[in-house]
Specification:
Elements: H1 2-31, H2 53-67, H3 80-88, H4 91-100, E1 102-104, E2 107-109, H5 120-134
Antiparallel strand pairs: 1-2
Length: about 140
């Protein structure tokens, strides 16, 4: 009979302990203030415009040699006053001047920035990069 009493006592103890844990959870939930702020994850924002990696790299390796120092009238990226009349001509004109070269009243632009190995896409990406810096 001692074994069965011990077994009943063990089962009863386990039941009390499990009920005790449930009571603690219920008490904690009930004691939480009703006005507690609810944390909600922020809605994802629209992805930022992709950085023009090709244009930035090409500018740094090739085009900055003239454009950063205003050599031969090359407009510095970010100089809105110098870029405004160029941008007003449209991107097709800027691409053409960068690809084929151009001589104008303010200076000259060698074809492909003097680098014959640049692809059309690289040149256009670099024009886009400089224009974006100058709007």
């Amino acid at each position: 009979m001692k074994k069965s009493s011990a077994l009943i006592l063990s089962i009863f103890s386990l039941a009390l302990l499990s009920a005790c844990g449930q009571k603690d959870a219920a008490t904690t939930a009930a004691s939480a203030p009703a006005s507690a702020p609810v944390v909600v994850a922020a809605a994802p924002t629209a992805p930022a415009a992709a950085e023009n990696v090709v244009g930035k790299a090409t500018y740094g390796k090739t085009c900055s040699l003239c454009h950063a120092a205003n050599v031969a009238g090359a407009p510095k990226p970010g100089d809105k006053a110098d870029w405004a009349p160029r941008i007003a001509q449209g991107m097709d004109v800027l691409y053409k001047h960068a690809l084929e070269g151009f001589t104008g009243a303010k200076g000259q632009m060698p074809a492909r920035g003097g680098s014959t190995t640049l692809s059309d896409a690289d040149v256009k990406a670099t024009v886009d990069f400089m224009v974006d810096q100058s709007r």
